[in-house]
Amino acid sequence: MKPMTNETETAASSSRRSARFPLVWKISLLVGLTLVGSSAVMGLAQNKYFASVLEQEGRSRAKAIANTLASALVEMPDSAVASTVQAVKKDAGVAYIEVVAANGSILAHTFEGRPPAQDAAQLKEGEKVNEVVLDGITYVDVPAAVITGTLVHVGLDPAVTRARLHEAQTRALLLTLIAVAISLALAYFLVRRIIDPLRRLTHVANRVVAGDLTQKVDVDSDDEIGEMASAFGKMLGKLQEAVSALQDSVKLLKEAGNDLSVSTSEQGETITKQATALQETQVTAQEIKQTSLLAAQKAEAILKLTEQADEVSASGEQALESTLGGLTDIRSQVDEIAQKIAQLSERTAQIGGITQTVKDLADQSNMLALNAAIE
After folding, report:
1. Spatial strand order in the sheet of 151-156
2. Fewer CB in a 10 Å sphere around the end CB: N or C, the chain?
3. Rounded CA gap, 214 and 221, in Å?
4. Considering the domain boundaries, does residue 230 fall inside one?
């Protein structure tokens, strides 16, 4: 019943693992979210960077235009400067060019007709890049100073700037997405390289829990996962050795139990024989007891005969004393007494034989009783 329970638990755990979100997808998702977050932060930083680059590019363009117009502002008349400014305004990203004198007056420009109304302070600004609104259109105004003190204002079209910024952002986003996809693929591959050995180890561990100790652990790497798999394989080998030793011990214990059962049976037979011998000894002792009683009864009868003999002897002595006074008269009586004494001697000899017989019986009874006690 227990192995079946283990298999049921293993199946249940396998179903729970299949229902859960796999670890490889969790790690890949985490890496993806990290990359997306990093990309978002990098995107914001890139926007600022691209804006700064475009601003620097506008300044460089304004400086280049100012350097181009420097000689014209010194050597050419105002009309020639205007044509030179129109010639310089060939860049598609330049919306207008204004040449402003030190007193704030506009010396030349690229507007059609009269230039739009502008803030005088804005026209005299020679360092700061500003956004200006001219005729309802927003431009990025980049000033550049010339050696003569004249300022050149270059107006950049924000639509062109935004288009270039959007193009740069699109390229950066595309490169970021490609990098994220490659990173996710690499992360998935690396995680699979880590998870697959762990899955195999988990399968082997579940089989061991189910009671299958014949599993083998394959080690195909020399990293930490490989070291763990190698250690798990060694542990499984030690467990197999322990189970084998335990099985051998159980076998030896079973054999010892069988030997003990046989010895117990033999001891039971021996005890039965000893009980039978003891019972026979008791019967022999009972017979000896009865023989002793009979011997005692005979001895008592002999003692009675001895008493009778004593009485006869006493009566003989009285008769002898009575005959001392007249030997002549009692000769006949002496003869009778001699006969009685002869008979008494025979009786006494018989009594002695009986007494010796009783003594021999008593000695034999004592020896039998002693042997019974020793057994």
Report:
1. 106-109, 94-100, 151-156, 137-145, 130-134
2. N
3. 22
4. no
**Residue 83 tokens, joined:** 């044509």
171 inside domain = yes
Pull the structure tokens for residue 119. 């803030």
Asked, for residue 250, whether it belongs to a domain, the answer is no
Domain that holds residue 306: 276-374
Last residue of a domain, one of 158, 190, 222: 190
Check whether residue 57 and residue 177 sit in a common domain: yes
Q: What is the pTM of this model?
A: 0.40
> b/e for 3-14, b at 16 or more Cβ within 10 A?
eeebbeebeeee
In a domain, 239, yes or no: no
User: Do residues 174 and 291 both lie within one domain?
Assistant: no
Packing angle of the helix pair 158-209, 23-75 (nearest 10 deg): 160
Query: Max Cα separation, the chain?
Result: 226
| Residues facing residue 100 across a β-bridge | 106, 151
> What CATH number does the domain containing 137 carry?
3.30.450.20
- As given in the structure block, the two tokens for residue 303 are 């003692």
Distance, CA of 256 to CA of 284 (rounded, Å) = 41
pLDDT by position in tens, the chain (length 375): 344 444 444 444 444 444 455 666 666 677 767 777 776 777 667 667 766 776 677 667 767 776 777 666 666 666 667 777 777 777 556 788 888 887 878 877 888 877 787 777 777 777 777 778 887 777 778 887 776 777 888 887 767 767 777 787 788 788 878 887 887 788 778 777 777 777 777 778 888 788 777 777 776 767 677 777 778 778 878 888 888 888 888 888 888 888 888 888 888 787 887 777 777 777 777 777 787 788 778 777 777 877 777 777 677 667 666 656 665 665 666 577 667 777 776 777 777 777 777 777 767 776 776 676 676
The encoded tokens of residue 216 equal 């083998």
What is the CB neighbour count within 10 angstroms for residue 298?
A: 14
User: Do residue 178 and residue 306 come from a single domain?
Assistant: no
Return d(Cα 289, Cα 362) in angstroms, integer.
10
Run of H or E residues at 141 = strand 137-145
Domain count, the chain: 2
Helices (H), the chain: 2-19, 23-75, 78-88, 120-124, 158-209, 224-324, 331-374
